[in-house]
What does this fold into?
Amino acid sequence: MRFDILTIFPSFFESPLKCGVLGKAIERGIVRVGVHDIRGYTSDRHRTTDDYPYGGGEGMVMKVEPIFRAVEKVKEEVTREGLRPWVILLTPQGQPLRQEKVIELANRDHLALICGRYEGVDERVRELVVDEEISIGDYILSGGEAAALVVVDAVSRLVRGVLGCGRSPLEESFSTGLLEYPHYTRPRVFMGLEVPEVLLSGNHGEIARWRRYQALKRTYERRPDLLEKASLSEEDLRMLEEIKKDREDKDGHP
Ligand code: 9D3
It folds into this structure.
């Protein structure tokens, strides 16, 4: 998998790409990330990447020419390698990034990620070079850089060989559709707080049932919206009834 990030802040990406499984994957060449300074594609004396908005108004707009040239360069390189370029603009107006979208992106061999700053990019960038626009959620960032990192991280985890061989990305909570159960490790007691007895019992059936119950309880309490889509067994539904009844008993109302 190859990513190319286009940004006016290339140094933003220096340390995050060295860390953890992603850092290892890049070191091993399973994932490749090129970071390109948009300023390097300007042609004026002041190396200008932004300008005042036509029609007036607040803030600045990123100019089309440097971004266009940077994307052309990346597409040329990528095509020469036999990969199919796919160009994404990170913007608050894009499709929200969810795990489904992450899976879709992981099926490509290349992603170019354009990071906007200021009020946004000249609309002609969209018309001329962008295949798809993505947002990472309904909150305001100061630019697309943090969002690009999120895309690289989430997509890379799905690339074969990035996670250790023991771990399958498909077994994780956003694929089962539930939040995870609580985890514990040593010591058995800390500040008077004990690890639940069942986890020490060695009874694997009991442990699996306890974990499923906890996952359902957490999801019910924190993200009931996820329960709508989760595929639940008869046993899950029985557990949910028990969880709801427990809540009513404690709250004193249905
Ligand atoms: C506060 C300014 N906004 C209204 C005038 C517009 C605006 C422009 C540019 C708001 C944020 C940004 C910068 N954000 C991104 O480039 C961005 C983003 C985000 O803010 N939230 C979620 N996903 C993304 S992807 C790129």
